[in-house]
């Protein structure tokens, strides 16, 4: 049985490792030009409808990779398998111009089970960031001699992103306190292409390429402390910490001058040890009343300010420590189940709602990046079949609004349909033959 479980999990996780880039190619956001791109949502199927509240949440039939201490609460007789995808429309506006794009992403794949009493394990893969944009700017200019006009067109295109695969453990030290840790590997690449062309063929074109391949590690620790208010109500306090460190990967910049038929000249610059990963921490709680109503609030902080990142100055790369700002996020959510003790499937449907706010970790032309507001609602629908009566289909709808504080900036509005399947199989039951 153990060999079967290990083979199953390995097969599941090897699929997205080779194909995640293709499956997370949605986006087309101009804001993904900066830093490592747009940071991916950490929410899973059970909390997408609550705007990502997670630090104080746990349960015997719930995987929560945001706080690895929650693994200690995994049911002893089941294998949990969780996968999530999002379908969304992005409405981008700048002044009186607007455009819509349709995209899809694979949000995560994870699995978990109990190794032994009070010790749970989880592993999985998910995207960390996304670079995806393609746009141009055209403007009319006067010839230097004043004899006419020409058009200058600037083209911008980028793609890539980071992914993370993790293995985590959660341990119940005592009935009230659980500790956990996720160890992971982060990898990915990005490329930013820009070019300037002119309608006057006597003026040379310029092409630039910024690219990097990134490989690093992650270590994230968590704890959860639960205490009872009375026989029916309890509060779980949650806290997490992520280790920041230097990343030894290199960045490359290539600049070319071109005419209509050939490359006239090129410069290539490489910068070693160009990146840094931030320290991060979070605190939160979940108040559960009679196993029916759960209210949670989280606050997280990512200390990006001062982290190294390659930037271009005087046509050369250098290690900038002024590319980022600390990122703060607060999220609040509520979940309601009519009657956990009922035999009716309809009484086990979970209804969820939430709100979150976060500022951007990147700077845009020296100014603060866009603020992120999200409102969400969703349901968790039990699935009853011959394999399990505890699997859940999670459905959530999110509205996300990105806008910068300065005027005349790009605004983005996302309408997302998030689908998550949490499969709970009784793989560890002891069979008896009569």
Model description:
It is a single chain. The protein is mostly beta strands and 434 residues long. The strands form four sheets. Strands 2-3-4-5-6-7-8-13-14-17-18-21-22-23 form a 14-stranded antiparallel barrel. The radius of gyration is 24 Å and the shape is elongated. It contains one helix and 23 strands. Mean pLDDT is 87; it is low at 1-26. A hairpin with a 7-residue loop joins β22 and β23. Helices cover 5% and strands 60% of the residues.
How would you concisely characterize the structure shown here?
The protein is mainly β and 434 residues long. The chain is built from one helix and 23 strands. Helices cover 5% and strands 60% of the residues.
Key words describing this protein structure:
434 residues, mainly beta, two-stranded antiparallel ribbon
SSE map:
Layout: H1 2-23, E1 38-39, E2 79-94, E3 97-116, E4 119-142, E5 149-172, E6 177-198, E7 205-228, E8 233-242, E9 245-247, E10 251-258, E11 263-271, E12 275-277, E13 279-289, E14 293-303, E15 309-313, E16 316-320, E17 327-336, E18 350-358, E19 363-364, E20 367-368, E21 371-383, E22 391-403, E23 411-425
